[in-house]
Amino acid sequence: MNIRKATCLIIRRESEFLVGTIIYSTDLRWSSSPWDAWSTRDRGKAEKVARKIGGELCLFNPIAGQLREVILHE
């Protein structure tokens, strides 16, 4: 497996990571673990969600356990 292809985008707000919405609700579910986080490789989609909920975008590689903040340019 190519370790670089495992890198994805996740959303963090304060010290928690977005997992998703609670079923049949608009409430968001959060976790203290980046391994639980909703992830995507679609930067446009991730930026849109991060801006909408006031979160910050992070690059996360679950194989290496590496987490880095992404700087958004307006």
Structural class by helix and strand composition: alpha+beta
**Proportion of strand residues:** 35-45%
How many strands?
5
Task: Look at the structure and give the mean pLDDT.
Answer: 93
Task: Please give a handful of descriptors for the protein shown.
about 70 residues, alpha+beta, five-stranded antiparallel beta sheet, 5 strands, about 15% helix, about 35% strand
Spell out the blueprint of helices and strands:
Blueprint (H helix, E strand, L loop, with lengths): L7 E6 L2 E6 L6 E4 L11 H11 L2 E6 L4 E4 L5
Antiparallel strand pairs: 1-2, 1-4, 2-3, 4-5
Descriptive overview:
The structure is a single chain. With 74 residues, this protein is α+β, with helices and mostly antiparallel strands. The protein has one helix at 43-53, and strands spanning 8-13, 16-21, 28-31, 56-61, 66-69. The protein has one domain. It is built from 1 helix and 5 strands. A hairpin with a 2-residue loop joins β1 and β2. The radius of gyration is 12 Å and the shape is globular. 15% of the residues are buried.
